[in-house]
Specification:
7-stranded mixed β-sheet; 4-stranded antiparallel β-sheet; mainly beta; 122 residues
Length: 122
């Protein structure tokens, strides 16, 4: 079992930055891939970024490439999403999730956090 807790969301002006954290419980957290997803009002939840268990492989959706960076610190059982150059289209609830392997498919992620709200004002 893995429990995930997101933090770091908030209100930021367009062009600003935020860093989201995903704290995982249990020694097995470091063996899981971690994905960040987001759900904007009236839209389906979508994959944003993912990282494999070691941090050696990452994946991003096209709209965030060059602006967002995913990383992890297994010693701290924590994954991060650094978000720069934020715009109004990034406004959403952001979720982290854990899976056996790095994938963009939500159905492969067995463990989910409760989400953290990110609001970008234009």
């Amino acid at each position: 079992q893995v429990q995930l807790v997101e933090s770091g969301g908030g209100l930021v002006q367009a062009g600003g930055s935020l860093r989201l954290s995903c704290a995982g419980s249990g020694r097995t957290f470091r063996s899981f891939a971690v994905g960040w997803f987001r759900q904007a009002p009236g839209k389906e939840r979508e994959f944003v970024a993912g990282i494999n268990w070691s941090g050696g492989s990452t994946s991003y959706t096209d709209s965030v490439k060059g602006r967002f960076t995913i990383s992890r610190d297994n010693a701290k059982n924590t994954a991060y999403l650094q978000m720069n150059s934020l715009n109004a289209e990034d406004t959403a609830v952001y979720f982290c999730a854990a899976a056996q392997y790095l994938t963009v498919f939500q159905t492969s992620y067995a463990y989910w956090g409760q989400g953290t709200q990110v609001t970008v004002s234009s």
